[in-house]
Amino acid sequence: MKTAIVILNWNGEKLLEQFLPSIVNFNSPEATIYVADNASTDNSISFVKENYPTVKIVQNPTNTGYAKGYNDALQHIDADIYCLINSDVEVTKNWLAPILQVFKEEENTAIIQPKLLDFKDKSKFEYAGAGGGFVDLYGYPYCRGRVFNDLETDNGQFNDVSEIFWASGACFFIRSKVYHQLGGFDEDYFAHQEEIDLCWRTQNEGFNIKYVGTSSVYHVGGATLQESNPHKTYLNFRNSLLTVVKNVPTQWFLFVVFSRLILDGIAGIKFLFELRPIHTWAIIKAHFSFYKNFFKFFNKRRKLQRRYEYNLHTSVVWQYFGLGRKKFKDLK
Question: Are strands 161-163 and 208-219 parallel, antiparallel or unpaired?
Answer without folding.
Answer: antiparallel
